C-alpha cells in the first residue's frame, strides 16, 4: 500500500521558499501519516477478528425443508414399495413422505452467520444442539441410529398395513437388551421371545404394560421361549421415572409376514415415514387408487397396532410438502401445537391419531368429497 499524504511534488519547482514551506509542512504531517497507518492496521485487525468470530462454529442445529418422496412412485428408477408373493396394483397420485435437512450437531458445525440467517428465515428452525442430539454423539452413531429407526418404521408400517387390511401375520415380542439396573437382570436375556405374562398371551407391548399396571408391583410370572424351549421366570417389576411398573428390558417386535414387502429409499433415515409407508403399502396391495389421483403428503411414526406418533421438524415438512405440490397433509395429533401458525397457504392439514383415520381421510379426498369436516388442529 502507498500512502501519499504530505508527499505531493511542488506545484512550482522554481519557487524555492515555497518548496521549503512544503518540506516543513510535509514534516509536520508525518505524525498524521503514522496515525493513519495505525488506524488502518487496527481496522484491518478488527475486521479480521470479526470475520473469524462470525465463522466460528456455534452449538446450534438448523432444520430446513427437505425433498418429498412419493411412496407409491419411484426413487432412482426403482419402486419405493415393491411386493412379491401377493398381488400388487399400480397406483396413481401421490402419497408423499416428507423430510428435513439437518445442519449442525454431528452432521458438521454451523457458523454464527448461518444460524442467524436461518433464524431470520421463516421456513427454517434453529435449536440448541442438545435438544436434538445427545452430548458426544458422533456422525457415524447418529447415522446408525437413524438407519435403525428407518428399518423399524418400515417393519411397523408393514405390520400396521396388514392389520388394517385384516391380513393375518405372526407377531412376537423379543428381548433386545437389558440395562445394568434392570429388574429382569439374570432372569431374561437378549433373544428371549416373550410368550405370556401371568398366563396371558403376549401379542403386543400393551399386554405387558396392562398386566404390570394391574399387578401394582407384585411379582409377574413370565414365560419366554429360549433356544427352542419354554422357560418360566418370576420377575418383580420396578417403577420407572414416570411411576409405571416395568420389566426393565428393551423390547422389539419380531414379525413373520405372509409375503415380502421391500421399501427402497436412498439416503433417508429416521422413523417419521412410518404412516406414509403404511398408506403406500395399502395402496400397492389393493385394487384401484387410494388417492384418486390426488397429491397428498404427511408424516408420523407408526406402531404395529396402527397408532400414529409425533415427529420433529413438522413446520419444515409442511413447507416441503406444499413446495412439492401437495394440497392435503396428514399430521400426527400429538404435533398439533407445532402445526398451528406454520401451515403454508394452499395446504389443508388433517389431524390423525391412527392409520384408520389417515386412510379414511385419503379415501374421502380421493372420492372428491368435502374434506372440510375432517379433524384439524385447534387451540382448544
Blueprint of the fold:
Blueprint: H1 16-55, E1 57-58, E2 60-70, E3 74-75, E4 78-79, E5 81-84, E6 94-104, E7 110-111, H2 112-120, E8 125-128, H3 129-132, H4 139-164, E9 170-177, E10 193-197, E11 200-201, H5 205-215, E12 220-226, E13 229-235, E14 238-239, E15 245-246, E16 250-256, E17 260-263, H6 274-285, E18 295-298, E19 301-302, E20 308-309, H7 314-323, E21 328-332, H8 336-339, E22 348-352, H9 355-366
Parallel strand pairs: 6-18, 18-21, 21-22
Antiparallel strand pairs: 1-7, 2-6, 2-8, 3-4, 5-17, 9-10, 9-16, 10-11, 10-12, 12-13, 14-15, 19-20
Helix pairs in contact: 4-6
Largest sheet: 6 strands, mixed
**Percentage of residues in helical conformation:** 25-40%
**Strand pairing plus helix content: what structural class?**
alpha+beta
Strand order of the largest sheet: 8-2-6-18-21-22
Instruction: Write down how many β-strands occur, each being a DSSP E stretch of 2 or more residues.
Output: 22
**What's the mean pLDDT score?**
86
How much is the radius of gyration in Å? 32 Å
Figure out the total of helices: 9
Oligomeric state of shown chains: single chain
Kindly describe this structure.
This protein has 380 residues and is α+β, with helices and mostly antiparallel strands. Helices cover 34% and strands 26% of the residues. It contains 9 helices and 22 strands. It has a 6-stranded mixed beta sheet with strand order 8-2-6-18-21-22. Strands 9, 10, 11, 12, 13 and 16 form a 6-stranded antiparallel beta sheet that branches. A hairpin with a 2-residue loop joins strand 10 and strand 11. Helix 4 crosses helix 6. The model is unreliable at 1-32 (pLDDT under 50).
Amino acid at each position: 500500500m502507498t500512502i501519499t499524504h504530505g508527499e505531493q511534488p511542488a506545484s512550482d519547482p522554481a519557487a524555492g521558499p515555497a518548496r521549503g514551506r512544503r518540506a516543513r509542512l510535509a514534516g509536520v504531517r508525518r505524525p498524521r501519516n503514522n496515525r493513519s497507518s495505525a488506524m488502518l492496521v487496527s481496522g484491518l485487525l478488527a475486521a479480521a477478528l470479526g470475520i473469524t468470530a462470525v465463522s466460528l462454529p456455534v452449538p446450534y442445529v438448523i432444520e430446513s425443508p427437505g425433498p418429498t418422496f412419493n411412496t407409491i412412485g419411484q426413487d432412482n428408477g426403482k419402486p419405493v414399495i415393491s411386493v412379491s408373493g401377493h398381488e400388487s396394483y399400480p397406483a396413481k397420485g401421490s402419497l408423499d413422505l416428507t423430510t428435513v435437512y439437518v445442519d449442525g450437531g454431528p452432521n458438521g458445525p454451523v457458523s454464527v452467520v448461518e444460524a442467524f440467517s436461518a433464524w431470520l428465515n421463516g421456513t427454517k428452525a434453529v435449536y440448541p444442539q442438545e435438544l436434538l442430539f445427545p452430548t458426544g454423539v458422533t456422525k457415524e452413531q447418529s447415522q446408525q441410529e437413524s438407519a435403525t429407526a428407518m428399518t423399524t418404521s418400515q417393519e411397523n408400517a408393514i405390520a400396521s398395513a396388514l392389520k388394517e387390511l385384516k391380513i393375518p401375520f405372526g407377531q412376537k415380542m423379543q428381548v433386545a437388551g437389558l440395562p445394568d439396573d434392570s429388574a429382569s437382570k439374570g432372569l431374561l436375556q437378549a433373544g428371549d421371545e416373550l410368550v405370556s405374562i401371568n398366563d396371558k398371551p403376549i401379542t403386543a407391548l400393551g399386554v405387558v404394560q396392562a398386566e404390570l399396571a394391574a399387578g401394582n408391583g407384585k411379582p409377574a410370572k413370565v414365560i419366554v421361549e429360549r433356544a427352542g424351549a419354554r422357560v418360566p421366570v418370576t420377575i418383580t417389576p420396578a417403577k420407572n421415572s414416570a411411576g409405571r411398573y416395568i420389566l426393565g428390558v428393551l423390547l422389539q417386535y419380531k414379525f413373520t409376514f405372509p409375503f415380502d414387502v421391500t421399501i427402497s429409499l436412498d439416503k433417508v433415515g429416521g422413523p417419521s415415514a412410518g404412516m406414509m409407508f403404511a398408506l403406500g403399502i395399502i395402496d400397492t396391495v389393493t385394487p384401484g387408487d387410494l388417492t384418486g389421483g390426488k397429491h397428498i403428503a404427511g408424516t408420523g411414526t407408526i406402531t404395529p397396532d396402527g397408532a400414529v406418533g409425533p415427529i420433529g421438524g413438522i413446520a419444515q415438512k409442511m413447507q416441503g410438502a406444499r413446495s412439492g405440490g401437495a394440497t392435503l397433509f396428514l399430521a400426527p395429533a400429538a404435533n398439533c401445537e407445532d402445526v398451528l401458525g406454520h401451515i403454508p397457504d394452499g395446504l389443508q392439514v388433517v389431524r390423525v391419531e391412527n392409520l384408520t383415520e389417515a386412510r379414511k381421510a385419503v379415501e374421502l379426498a380421493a372420492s372428491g368429497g368435502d374434506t372440510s369436516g375432517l379433524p384439524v388442529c385447534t387451540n382448544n
